[in-house]
């Protein structure tokens, strides 16, 4: 077995053995799916966004996930408080800049999170990563058609600027720390037709980085698990309804044998 | 093929081709289903309710959906801001007065939305449409048993008063612009046992009115799609769990051949 | 048929016949599941948390469910207002202290609800009930490993202190009014891997206590229904995705014959 797969299987075993608590401050659309995705893989999810408790909650968590899908000023304040505490405790922070580029407010908030929270990992689709990189260079807006190459270059630049790992989700997922670039070839287009699939990916990254200090590998491992579960789910789906259900079942069932059989090098 | 079906199939093709962005300010119970229903039919959903961004978001959207299922003062403010911008841009507004008649607050908010937002289309069940019409005539409350005839008359009156199209969902759906009344005979009673089915109908109307300027026809076409998908979903459901999943799958699969086979004239 | 089963079947018939309105002020993660669980069993759910309307809403409801899973100061205020009105109207209150013990804020809020709302029934897992009992005795925190015996003793003490019924969910569910202890042996471990299963239990208790003045029996009956539906759902599940769907289907289908066949005395 190659080193990549060994690392993946080791992480998966650790997630199931230690059931790390992943604290999510996330959007209202996907909370249920995200919690179930974390439960399916063996982690322990908690969703909490009250300003009064986020610092306490993140203090007992092994990873913090920030997602601005349905942001408001109160949630943003909670994110900044939780992230500040996470930084003090060296707890990894995963940031999902949902919809950045769509509105000036999202750009402002995303920049605030980048600057103040210094995420350990950022995950977005090509448009979001591109918009985020542009925010960084003080421009606004998002291109609707994005070339993968451009996204990769900007992802590397973003990773370097913030000393973090950047994940670009797409037909091929790219994971970079600004130097190395890893590619995940597993996955299925039907995943794009289920709301919150990207948010689930971000949460799973939280579970993997909670058990693996090698941040690049943790992000890569989580994305391989996403991709294989997505492929297997799509094989028996007849639409995005069954896709959503099957995906959780496949996350629940995934193991060493399945990973070895379906992993695309 | 008759003119009704031609229009429906044309709309469906346009939704799938152009993937119109539908901006939803909706309730916390149904956000996931609504987003998935829009994705299933081929539209592009966005859920956003921050006061700081709703005007920007609706500016890039092709339709605005307002739903007061779990309203609060902040969401109401966001709805009014978004609707005002939508009006300026001639973007259609679809209003779902969930639970109007149940509390004085919902009646007040519903009236505010009617007066200030002037929705393009209103969709509710018979009780809600009746309550809304009564709000309009300054009375409160809602009758728990509502005759279809009464609902139709009040729907016509409401449509005339606000120069909009009104959809009354039920065993038969009625769609009226105050003059003409169209009837949709497709559908299944199990749809009432799944939370947010009406909210999905409202969102689909948003997708259809985004691609068809004939508002009456757009609303009618969306309701036929709802009805057929609901019937087919119920045929293989063994409860409201599988009904919810099947419904999304049927929306995903629906096409010209299915519509022609199952449409009830 | 023994007296326990007669009572259960009578309650189920009443829920389906009268379709009691259950008013939920609950968390953002489980709203959809909770609403669908109530619809599946035949009750009528409403989710409403605006301070402006909770008193009106609870006034037309037959039970009030309070759940602090994703609490914030506004929801807490709404809970206290609604509970106060419920008390005036002798409407039963079911309290789900999700995550109590995890943060100081949850402990404070849980104590406030205990003191000011005087719930009719409290349902939690062993850790939560233990934490709640400790809050009551002015200590903080929660033990991660909890012996069933300790939980039972604390549950009895809590029930006595607040003159309420306490439900401890687990492999065996314990239901106590401080004197008697009833046990539910139905259930399946896969239920713990679906988010919000406990919240659904709490909501179902709301539906049963809405039709049965014998609070201890109502809580017991709801938990038996949960357990049987969970077992049957697990029998055909291949992960937590299908488990969530099957569970709703089984609640929808459950009837006298199924209960008699699967009830574990």
From TrEMBL, chains A, B, C:
- Identify the InterPro entries for this entry: Hyethyz_kinase, Ribokinase-like
- Documented EC number(s): 2.7.1.50
| Residue runs in coiled coils | none
Report which reactions are catalysed by this protein: 5-(2-hydroxyethyl)-4-methylthiazole + ATP = 4-methyl-5-(2-phosphooxyethyl)-thiazole + ADP + H(+)
Name the GO cellular-component terms.
cytosol
Which key words are in the record? ATP-binding, Kinase, Magnesium, Metal-binding, Nucleotide-binding, Thiamine biosynthesis, Transferase
Kinase among keywords: yes
> Which cofactor(s) does the record list?
Mg(2+)
Is Transport there in the keyword field?
A: no
Q: Where does substrate bind?
A: 47, 196
User: Per its UniProt entry, what is the enzyme's top EC class, as one word?
Assistant: transferase
Which Pfam families is this protein grouped with? HK
Which GO-annotated molecular functions does the record name? ATP binding; hydroxyethylthiazole kinase activity; hydroxymethylpyrimidine kinase activity; magnesium ion binding; phosphomethylpyrimidine kinase activity
Can you supply a Gene Ontology BP term from the record?
thiamine diphosphate biosynthetic process
Metabolic or biological pathway, per its Swiss-Prot or TrEMBL entry: Cofactor biosynthesis; thiamine diphosphate biosynthesis; 4-methyl-5-(2-phosphoethyl)-thiazole from 5-(2-hydroxyethyl)-4-methylthiazole: step 1/1
Residues noted as binding ATP in the record, renumbered to the chain: 123, 169
Question: HAMAP family in the record, alphabetically?
Answer: Thz_kinase (MF_00228)
Q: Which family does it belong to?
A: Belongs to the Thz kinase family.
Q: Spell out the NCBIfam families in the cross-references.
A: PRK09355.1, thiM
Function, please? Catalyzes the phosphorylation of the hydroxyl group of 4-methyl-5-beta-hydroxyethylthiazole (THZ).
Q: What is this protein called?
A: Hydroxyethylthiazole kinase
Gene source species: Myroides albus
Upper classification of the organism: Bacteria, Pseudomonadati, Bacteroidota, Flavobacteriia, Flavobacteriales
């Amino acid at each position: 077995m190659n080193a990549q797969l060994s690392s993946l299987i080791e992480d998966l075993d650790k997630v199931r053995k230690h059931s790390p608590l992943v604290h999510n401050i996330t959007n209202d659309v996907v909370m249920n799916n995200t919690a179930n995705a974390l439960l399916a893989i063996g982690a322990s999810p908690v969703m909490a966004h009250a300003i009064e408790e986020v610092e306490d909650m993140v203090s007992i968590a092994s990873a913090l996930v920030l997602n601005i899908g349905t942001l408001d000023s109160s949630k943003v304040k909670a994110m900044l408080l939780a992230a500040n505490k996470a930084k003090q405790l060296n707890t990894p922070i995963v940031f999902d800049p949902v919809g950045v580029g769509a509105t000036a407010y999202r750009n402002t908030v995303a920049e605030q999170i980048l600057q103040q929270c210094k995420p350990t990992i950022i995950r977005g689709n090509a448009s979001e990563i591109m918009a985020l990189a542009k925010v960084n260079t003080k421009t606004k807006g998002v291109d609707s058609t994005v070339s993968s190459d451009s996204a990769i270059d900007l992802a590397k630049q973003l990773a370097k600027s913030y000393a973090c790992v950047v994940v670009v989700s797409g037909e091929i997922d790219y994971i970079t720390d600004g130097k190395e670039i890893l590619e995940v070839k597993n996955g299925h287009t039907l995943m794009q037709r289920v709301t919150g699939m990207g948010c689930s990916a971000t949460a799973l990254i939280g579970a993997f980085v909670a058990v693996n200090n090698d941040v690049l590998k943790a992000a890569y491992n989580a994305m391989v698990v996403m991709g294989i579960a997505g492929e297997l789910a799509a094989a028996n789906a007849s639409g995005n309804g069954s896709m959503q259900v099957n995906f959780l079942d496949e996350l629940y069932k995934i193991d060493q044998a399945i990973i070895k059989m379906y992993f695309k090098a």
